[in-house]
Inverse folding.
């Protein structure tokens, strides 16, 4: 009967504390929101110990799962499967360890989510310009504005005029409005500025979906320079809204 991780090193987090933090997530959950909770619950050193114990749990589960035949998993999905089981908490984790048929059934049904491990902070998340800092969203917002400038230049050259769109005319209004929102945020890159940006969430999402659909529907008609590796609309959603919400949640303390 497997019922403990044999945590012995001071580099690892004690098992009771580890499972308490795992179960805080109520997995499956929103990765970003849970990472923010972990950043508030653990300092950098505690998180390192958490990761060491997480690896211990993974290795134990892996020693059971690798004995199974015909798991419908590649390398990535196999990791997702085991991470998912860890995320479910102590009781279910040991149920899976002691009954490998449960692992097989979960894999066969694709009943696992990618990936509990995304909830766990990295060292870089604790820095003052990490993922959830104002510095990060300022940096990403500037990158998005530069992306918009690049698309405008590709469309009509150096002399841009918002009334003279060519290839991008059907989405010109949306691009202009999103650009203006980002520029406005950079004038007030504070908590209040984040709140104003977040108020525009519905508009940005709708506008970005329209932009994404435009590129999808006109893939063959647009010049290749617009469609090669286009991540334009995705960047807008992430940088203008989702990151702003996460940063605001983080800096609330």
């Amino acid at each position: 009967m497997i019922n403990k991780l044999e945590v012995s090193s001071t580099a690892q987090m004690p098992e009771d504390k580890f499972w308490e933090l795992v179960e805080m997530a109520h997995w499956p959950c929103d990765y970003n929101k849970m990472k923010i909770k972990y950043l508030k619950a653990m300092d950098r050193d505690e998180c390192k110990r958490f990761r060491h114990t997480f690896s211990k749990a993974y290795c134990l589960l892996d020693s059971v799962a690798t004995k199974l035949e015909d798991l419908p998993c590649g390398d990535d999905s196999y990791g997702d499967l085991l991470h998912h089981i860890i995320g479910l908490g102590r009781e279910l984790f040991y149920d899976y360890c002691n009954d490998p048929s449960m692992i097989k059934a979960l894999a066969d049904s694709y009943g696992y989510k990618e990936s509990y491990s995304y909830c766990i902070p990295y060292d870089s998340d604790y820095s003052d310009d990490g993922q959830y800092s104002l510095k990060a969203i300022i940096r990403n917002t500037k990158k998005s504005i530069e992306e918009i400038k690049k698309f405008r230049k590709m469309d009509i050259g150096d002399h841009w005029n918002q009334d003279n769109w060519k290839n991008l005319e059907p989405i010109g209004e949306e691009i202009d409005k999103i650009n203006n929102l980002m520029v406005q945020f950079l004038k007030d890159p504070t908590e209040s500025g984040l709140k104003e940006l977040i108020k525009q969430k519905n508009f940005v999402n709708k506008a970005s979906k329209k932009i994404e659909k435009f590129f999808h529907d006109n893939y063959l008609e647009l010049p290749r320079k617009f469609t090669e590796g286009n991540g334009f609309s995705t960047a807008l959603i992430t940088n203008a809204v989702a990151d702003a919400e996460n940063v605001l949640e983080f800096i609330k303390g």
In short: The two ends are 42 Å apart (CA to CA).
